[in-house]
From TrEMBL:
2Fe-2S ferredoxin-type domain residues: 1-77
Record protein name field: (2Fe-2S)-binding protein
Keyword hit for Lipoprotein: no
Top-level taxonomy: Bacteria, Pseudomonadati, Pseudomonadota, Alphaproteobacteria, Rhodobacterales
CDD domains assigned: fer2 (cd00207)
InterPro entries, sorted: 2Fe-2S-bd (IPR002888), 2Fe-2S-bd_dom_sf (IPR036884), 2Fe-2S_ferredoxin-like_sf (IPR036010), 2Fe-2S_ferredoxin-type (IPR001041), 2Fe2S_fd_BS (IPR006058), Beta-grasp_dom_sf (IPR012675), Diverse_Oxidoreductases (IPR051452)
Organism, as annotated: Lutimaribacter marinistellae
Keyword presence, Lipoprotein: no
Length: 154
């Protein structure tokens, strides 16, 4: 089945079976590998992308549900004001340890900061709760989100 989707500002037509997760279309068909496979059941957040500006888990978002939607992946975040601030904060604070979960962490952090430009530490913990980090860098992730809010405020 042919599906048209807008990914990172470009329109693509892909041929996929109904029920194919968006994650596999992004990685296998469109060759953008920044979005990671973690658990496959939307529990870890490694596969987070934005659909029409909202964070979604691409492992449980099916290709037939995204026709006409605007999908944004980590590859496009540097061109986004909030995304660039988050990435700057991540670098400043050396948030990353192994890095595997970080694209999902960044995508979720951007979603938070778009909803709440001045979050508290508790707001960050609550919003980021569904994103797992095997290296347990949660304190650095929290600090990175709070730093990104400061960068955006300046």
């Amino acid at each position: 089945m042919a599906i048209s989707l807008k990914l990172n500002g470009q329109t693509h037509t892909v041929e996929s079976e109904p029920g194919t997760p968006l994650l596999w279309v992004i990685r296998d068909e469109l060759k953008l590998t920044g979005t990671k496979f973690g658990c496959g059941v939307a529990s870890c957040g490694a596969c987070t992308v934005h659909m029409d500006g909202q964070p979604v888990r691409s492992c449980q978002t099916y290709i037939e549900d995204v026709e006409g939607a605007e999908i944004t992946t980590i590859e496009k975040m540097e061109d986004d004001k909030v995304g660039a601030a988050v990435q700057q904060a991540w670098l400043e604070l050396d948030v990353v340890q192994c890095g595997y979960c970080q694209s999902g962490q960044i995508m979720n952090a951007v979603g938070l900061l778009r909803e709440n430009a001045n979050p508290t530490a508790q707001d960050v913990d609550d919003y980021m709760h569904g994103n797992a980090c095997r290296c347990a860098t949660y304190q650095r992730i929290r600090a990175g989100v709070l730093r990104a809010a400061e960068i955006l405020e300046a």
